Structure formats: structure tokens, C-alpha cells
Amino acid sequence: MKRFLAIAALGLLVAAGALAKETPPYNPQADAKAQVAHVLAEAQTNHKPVLLFFGANWCEDCRALAHDLATGRNAQLMDAHFNIAKIDVGNFDRNLDVVNRFGNPIAKGIPAAVIVSPDGKLLYSTRAGELSEARSMSADGVYDFFQKAIQSVQSAR
């Protein structure tokens, strides 16, 4: 029994270490204006819209959404349809000029997302905190949410 408990404890320590090494989704040192310019330039080339995520590393919902979007069919959906940038908003005090450029989608919480055409026109925005409970959404819920956003953008064109 002691051996089992020791092995179980070791397993928990290894798992905790792996989680601690996970790369945070938002880079607080990144130049947000340069990030946006870069993905818009990519969009001009590959003709896919830009998806901007606004969030922060301290935000559990932001981290949960970033994780869900980086795996499985969500990652495939993102890759197939968007050029993506993640903009760090700190404690709602960082990169607010970029946030406001796209209609202040963080007013009701983070994470927030906007979809922008390759020429910079706002096509879609979360304005009511739609993603602010992302940790409660399943991977399928995240997929369905962005599938509807894609359909909304495509029907508006």
C-alpha cells in the first residue's frame, strides 16, 4: 500500500510539473499593433479572415479556451479558417488602443474574440461576454460556437 501511495504521489508531481511547463497563451511583451499588422498581412496573402483573441494569462477561461482551440478538430477549424493573434489585455489595462480599434469586445469580460476581414473590416465580435465562461464550455461547445461565427461571417459577405 505504501508503494502504491508513493507511486501515485510521484504521478501527481509529474502531472503538476507538466501543467506548470505549459506555455501561457498570451505574451505580455508582444507588440499588439505589430501582431495585428502581421496577421492582416497574412490575410491579404491567404485570403482567410483574422481572428483576434483578447485575454490574459491570469484568466482561467482564457487559458481553457486557448487549450481547447489548440487541440483536435478545434485546431483544424482554426487553421482552416483563420489567421490568429492573441492580444494580452493584462488586467484590462494593456493594449486598450487595439481593443478599442475593434469596438471594445472585452467590455463584458474575457476572453473575447473578433473576426476581421483581410482588409481590416470588423465582421464579428463577442460583445456580451459570450466566451467569458469558456472553462465551462466543452470542446464541442467551443467548436459549435466558432462554427456559428464562421457561418455568420460567410453569410454577411
C-alpha Rg (nearest Å): 18 Å
Describe the strand arrangement of the main beta sheet, using strand numbers.
2-1-3-4
Mean pLDDT: 90
Can you summarize the main beta sheet?
A: 4 strands, mixed
Shape: globular
In what range is the share of β-strand residues? Answer: 5-15%
Number of extended strands: 4
- Terminal-residue CA separation: 64 Å
Q: Pairing-aware structural class of the strands and helices?
A: alpha+beta
**SSE sequence, one letter per element:** HHEHHEHEEH
Low-confidence sequence ranges: 8-20
Number of helical runs? 6
The helicity comes to 40-55%
Question: Which descriptors would you attach to this protein?
Answer:
157 residues, alpha+beta, 13% strand, globular
Describe it:
- The chain has 157 residues and is α+β, with helices and mostly antiparallel strands.
- Strands 2-1-3-4 form a 4-stranded mixed β-sheet, sandwiched between helices.
- Strand 3 and strand 4 form a beta hairpin.
- Helix 4 packs parallel to helix 6.
